[in-house]
Amino acid sequence: MTSNNGKHQLGVAEGTALFVGAVLGPGVMVLPALAAKAAGPASVVAWVVLLAFSVPVAATFAALGARHPDGGGVATFVTRAFGPRFAVPVGWWFYFAVPVGVLAGGLVGGEYVAAALGAGRGVALGIALAILGAAFGANYVGLHVSGRMQLAMVAVLAVLLLVTVIAAAPDARPANFTPFAPHGWPAIGSAATVLFFAFSGWEAASHLSGEFRDPRRHLPRATALTLVLVSVLYLSIASVTIGVLGDQAGSTSVPLSLLLEAAFGPVGRSVTAVAAVFLSFIAVNTYIAGAARLGAALGRDGGLPRALAKSDTVPRRSLTVQLVLCVIVVVVTTVLAIDLDSLMRVTSACLAAVSFAGMAAALRLLPGRSVLWFSAAAGLGFTAVVLAFCGFLVLVPVTLAVGALLATRSTSAIRPGSWADGRT
Fold first, then answer.
1. Cβ(303)–Cβ(75) under 8 Å?
2. Architecture of domain 12-421
3. How far is CA 252 from the centre of its chain?
4. Is 33:255 a contact under the CB 8 Å cutoff?
5. Quick one: average pLDDT of 336-347?
6. What pLDDT does 54 receive?
7. Could you tell me how far CA 412 lies from the centroid of its own chain?
8. Average of pLDDT values for 346-369?
9. What is the distance between the alpha carbons of residues 206 and 291, in angstroms, rounded to a whole number?
10. How far is CA 27 from CA 197, 223, 269, 274, in A?
11. CA–CA gap between residue 126 and residue 16 (Å, rounded)
12. N or C: which end of the chain has fewer CB within 10 A?
């Protein structure tokens, strides 16, 4: 984060809190159920694969962010590797996917509160809007305030999730893992597609690389701590969800409520409702912060209207655009009755495209044939597979890319010096 005197203030602790907020977030509350619905107990394989490949992806983004810290995130990396023309679509993929993703994140919290109250979709949407409003308010005040809030929240929620796993694990039954692949092995790919929503937070975190006091030291450490924490939490909760709930794991929208209810009785629903709201806020806040800074960088460099680049320490104009886009997404989602799974899959498709571009840029920017270079190559192959499993939804990032190129078809609209030089 940036203080009023312009100095970068994010350290390892607050950086880890922000990263965990982006990578863990509300996904831990609902994705185990969505994955189980797609692939049954075999969804655990999808979790393992995604966790394994998140290591090279996270390591690559940490290396790029440490070397080229900038609010443009992946767009900055792509500019340095391939030129500014290729960076604009990448910026658009993230910038215009965030309103869809944060609504999905807010709805996770809303679904848990609605379940605790025995209410319907209207209450869930109302809670989601309240979460979005709080996150936008925190970001208008400044990242310094929201970063401290998240540091405390992540610590409390990590403990709560670990307690949930420990308390519910004795109720797990091996029989709930059979048949292991009721929908066939290809269903693991479908599960992995929706699960990518949980692991796409590294792109959001990359936009905060310029906010660290010492990116070369603090960014890799925050990344490593985040990897350890989210790996333990995600895999343990996914396994316990299948082991305890069995077939019910794929038919509920509030799996963690059922786990806590099994461990602590009816009070479990109230506890998970509060946890879901906090987790949703953490993730929504991080994504909005990253998107606001990206919008300012895009405006600075000609990828969006230059007025977005004008700000003090907080990019409020870009933040306002994000707010307007969120309102549009809420209206469309409500009118068309789009469900949470669809919102997550659309977001995953866009962020998988961002990740693919970032890995490709890393192959040009990192030392050739080094460990980090091979990590980038592994990440590139992995995200290519995820994009293939997105199916027709890959048309979303394709359409945005075409729109970005048409909007900046004049080369004079792009100023190659800024992203390429890594200026914030």
1. yes
2. Up-down Bundle (1.20)
3. 22
4. yes
5. 88
6. 83
7. 33
8. 90
9. 11
10. 7, 18, 17, 15
11. 30
12. C
The rounded distance, in Å, linking the Cα atoms of 296 and 294 is 5
CA distance 224 to 247: 34
Of residues 419 and 35, which shows the higher confidence score? 35
Q: Quick one: tokens of 109?
A: 């919290």
pLDDT at 133 over 90: yes
Q: How many CB atoms sit inside 10 A of residue 280's CB?
A: 31
| Comparison of pLDDT for 363 and 283, the residue scoring more | 363
% of the chain surpassing 90 pLDDT: 21
What are the structure tokens assigned to 400, written together? Answer: 């945005």
Closest CA to 93 of 363, 352, 389: 352
Q: CA 110 to CA 273: how far, in whole Å?
A: 8
Per-residue pLDDT, 106: 92
> Mind spelling out the 3-state secondary structure of the chain?
CECCCCCECECHHHHHHHHHHHHCCCHHHHHHHHHHHHHHHHHHHHHHHHHHHHHHHHHHHHHHHHHCCCCCCHHHHHHHHHCHHHHHHHHHHHHHHHHHHHHHHHHHHHHHHHHHHCCCHHHHHHHHHHHHHHHHHHHHHCHHHHHHHHHHHHHHHHHHHHHHHHHHHHHCCHHHHCCCCCCCCCHHHHHHHHHHHHHCHHHHHHCCHHHECCHHHHHHHHHHHHHHHHHHHHHHHHHHHHHHHHHHHHCCCCHHHHHHHHHHCCHHHHHHHHHHHHHHHHHHHHHHHHHHHHHHHHHHHCCCCHHHHCCCCCCHHHHHHHHHHHHHHHHHHHHHCCCHHHHHHHHHHHHHHHHHHHHHHHHHHCCCCCHHHHHHHHHHHHHHHHHHHCHHHHHHHHHHHHHHHHHCCCHHHCCHHHHHHCCC
pLDDT of residue 1: 40
